[in-house]
Amino acid sequence: MDRGLIALAAGLAITFAAGLAGLGIGLSSGKAFDSMARQPEMANKIQSLLFIAIIFIEATAIYALVVSLILLFVFK
Amino acid sequence: MDRGLIALAAGLAITFAAGLAGLGIGLSSGKAFDSMARQPEMANKIQSLLFIAIIFIEATAIYALVVSLILLFVFK
Amino acid sequence: MDRGLIALAAGLAITFAAGLAGLGIGLSSGKAFDSMARQPEMANKIQSLLFIAIIFIEATAIYALVVSLILLFVFK
Amino acid sequence: MDRGLIALAAGLAITFAAGLAGLGIGLSSGKAFDSMARQPEMANKIQSLLFIAIIFIEATAIYALVVSLILLFVFK
Amino acid sequence: MDRGLIALAAGLAITFAAGLAGLGIGLSSGKAFDSMARQPEMANKIQSLLFIAIIFIEATAIYALVVSLILLFVFK
Amino acid sequence: MDRGLIALAAGLAITFAAGLAGLGIGLSSGKAFDSMARQPEMANKIQSLLFIAIIFIEATAIYALVVSLILLFVFK
Amino acid sequence: MDRGLIALAAGLAITFAAGLAGLGIGLSSGKAFDSMARQPEMANKIQSLLFIAIIFIEATAIYALVVSLILLFVFK
Amino acid sequence: MDRGLIALAAGLAITFAAGLAGLGIGLSSGKAFDSMARQPEMANKIQSLLFIAIIFIEATAIYALVVSLILLFVFK
Amino acid sequence: MDRGLIALAAGLAITFAAGLAGLGIGLSSGKAFDSMARQPEMANKIQSLLFIAIIFIEATAIYALVVSLILLFVFK
Amino acid sequence: MDRGLIALAAGLAITFAAGLAGLGIGLSSGKAFDSMARQPEMANKIQSLLFIAIIFIEATAIYALVVSLILLFVFK
Amino acid sequence: MDRGLIALAAGLAITFAAGLAGLGIGLSSGKAFDSMARQPEMANKIQSLLFIAIIFIEATAIYALVVSLILLFVFK
Amino acid sequence: MDRGLIALAAGLAITFAAGLAGLGIGLSSGKAFDSMARQPEMANKIQSLLFIAIIFIEATAIYALVVSLILLFVFK
Amino acid sequence: MDRGLIALAAGLAITFAAGLAGLGIGLSSGKAFDSMARQPEMANKIQSLLFIAIIFIEATAIYALVVSLILLFVFK
Amino acid sequence: MDRGLIALAAGLAITFAAGLAGLGIGLSSGKAFDSMARQPEMANKIQSLLFIAIIFIEATAIYALVVSLILLFVFK
């Protein structure tokens, strides 16, 4: 039954982390579009910061992906 | 029972990740339309950023898809 | 009992992914109508972007559908 | 007990997918009425886009219906 | 115990689908009244679209009803 | 134990469907009062549409009631 | 154990249906007071519609009460 | 164990019904105070309607109380 | 184990009923302060109605307390 | 195992009742500060009503505390 | 197993009570800062009331702490 | 198994208490910044009150920490 | 099985505490940016307070980390 | 079964911590873009504070990652 629980752990690890990270990118980029529309001359600064924010959010999803892959290939 | 739990893990992994990512794309694109309507001359910039945001959100869903497929084809 | 759990996994995989994707399309298209009403001359651009957004959201639902069908026809 | 779990899977698959899709159509159409009232001359465009959005949302519910029917008639 | 689980599946299938669909009709019709009050001359168009939206939402509830009745009369 | 699960299914089927439908009628009628207050001359049209919306929402609750009664009197 | 589950079903059936219906009446009547304050001359029409809305919401709670009483006195 | 489940059913029946009904009265009366402050000459009408709304909400809590007491004194 | 479940039922019965009732009083009184500040000459009327609302909300918590005490002293 | 379940019941009884009551006091007092700031000459009336509201909210938490202490010292 | 359940009860009792009380203090003090900024001459009154509100909210957390400590030192 | 449940209790006790307290500090300080920006001459008063609020919120987290440490070092 | 439950406790302890603390920092810093934009000359004061708020929020996450590490290295 | 529970703990530890941290970065950066658009000359200050906020949020996710990795490599 251990093998099944490890699989379940891998699935659980990725599902909320990836989903909420996706939601977070959606919120962040949505606000960025909003701000660009209101202040077009800030667009370049906001764009580069948006990339940084996306990368950090993506990073949290990748932490979970790493745990998930360790569970599947190393821990099994 | 392991096989059943692995299947459950694959289903769990994809369901919230894909669903919340879909919700995130919905929020992000919705805000993008809003911003385009308010500042039409920013439409091209916002459009290309929207594609980048969608791709990163889609990526979180694909992380979960990868875990899900590994569970089904490699880990089984 | 494995067969039952695989079935449960297929059901779980599709239910939240499809439902939240549907909600996401609803939010995205709702905002699109809003923006068209405020800026009619942007309607064509928004319409084509709406199609792209819907397709990407639909894609997340299809990821889950694929996992679901693999569970039912390949993994069983 | 497998048969019972397959039934449970079919019920689970349809319930949230159909319900959230219904909620999504409600949100989308509600926003569409709003936009028509504000910009009556856009009504025809919004109406045809609303139909497309409803069809795509309906599609996510149908994905779940398909999984549900496969579970009941093919997988059983 | 299978029979009990099939019954549970039928109950689960209908409860959230019907409830959330009811909520969706409530949201959609509420917005429709709002729009009619703001733009009375659009009332006829909105009314006919409201009927279409309600029918599609009702359809998602009926999908679940169909699964529920199949579970009770065909699958049992 | 089957009998107990069938009872549980009947209880589950009605509780969220009826409750959320009640919430939906509350939201829909609340918005209708709002619209009547803002545009009194639309009151008759909104009133007749409100009745139609209430009937359709009530219908979703009745779908669940039907499933519930079938579970109690036919399926038992 | 059946008897206990039937009791649990009766309790489950009434609790969310009654509670959410109560919440729905609260929302509906709250909006009605709001509308009366804004448009006093509509007060009589809104009042009679409020009664109709309350009755329909109360009806959903009574559906659940009926299922609950059938579970306790007929099904037991 | 039946006796324990019946007790649990009685507790479950009253807890959410009473709590959500209390929340509903809070929302309804809160809106009533709001409306009175905005339109003092409507205060008497709103007050009498508030009493009716409270009674109907209280009624849903009492439905659950009745089910709860039947469970404790008749069904036991 | 019955004794333990009865205790659990008593705890469950009071916890959400009392908590949500407390939240309801908080919402209701909060709105009352708001209304008094906007329309000081209505303060006496609102104050007496606030007492009535609080009593009715308190009543729902007391229903649950009664069920809880019956469970502990009569049903045990 | 009864003793453990009674302990669990005592813990469950107090946790949500106390927590939600605390949240309710927070909401109520927060609105009271708001109203005082907008209408300083009402401050004394609002202050005395705030004390009454807090006492009634505190009362719901104390109901749960009473049930909790009965469970620990009388029922055990 | 009793000892473990008592421990679990103590943990459960404190976690939501303390957490929600903390959230409540956050909401209450947040509103207090808001009101002070809008009406600086009310700052002293609001400050003393804020202390009273915080003490009452803290009290609900302490009720749970008391139950928790009784569970750990008296009931064990 | 007792030892495991005690550990689980310690983990449960701290997780929501600490998390919600952190959220509460976030809300409280956020509002404080807001108020300072609107009324800079109140900044010192708000700052000292913010520290008091943070300390009281931190206190609720520490209650849970205390219960958690008693569970791990005294109760074990 | 104790060892597994201790591990689960460590995981549970950190997950919500860290996550909600992260959310709290996000809310607090978001409001701080907002306030700085509205009142630039307050930026230095807000910045130093933001650091204090972040440290206190971080502290709640560290409480949970401490409990988690005690569970893994001392309690095991 | 211990090994499986440790895996589950590692998955649980990372999933909500990473996901909510990602959501927090999304909220914080979204507000930052907003503030930059409103007050462009504050952009540099806000940008450097945003980096600090992101690092502290990221830190909470890393706490969970550390616990997760300890669970997988040290505790196993």
Automatic annotation (TrEMBL), chains A, B, C, D, E, F, G, H, I, J, K, L, M, N:
The record marks 58 as: Reversibly protonated during proton transport. Keywords: ATP synthesis, Cell membrane, CF(0), Hydrogen ion transport, Ion transport, Lipid-binding, Membrane, Transmembrane, Transmembrane helix, Transport. It is a multi-pass membrane protein. It comes from the Bacteria. The chain crosses the membrane at residues 6-28, 49-75. It is found in: Cell membrane; Membrane. Residues 8-71 form the V-ATPase proteolipid subunit C-like domain. Gene3D superfamilies: F1F0 ATP synthase subunit C (1.20.20.10). Pfam families: ATP-synt_C (PF00137). NCBIfam families: ATP_synt_c (TIGR01260). F(1)F(0) ATP synthase produces ATP from ADP in the presence of a proton or sodium gradient. F-type ATPases consist of two structural domains, F(1) containing the extramembraneous catalytic core and F(0) containing the membrane proton channel, linked together by a central stalk and a peripheral stalk. During catalysis, ATP synthesis in the catalytic domain of F(1) is coupled via a rotary mechanism of the central stalk subunits to proton translocation. Belongs to the ATPase C chain family. This is ATP synthase subunit c. It comes from Amygdalobacter indicium. The lineage of its organism: Bacteria, Bacillati, Bacillota, Clostridia, Eubacteriales.
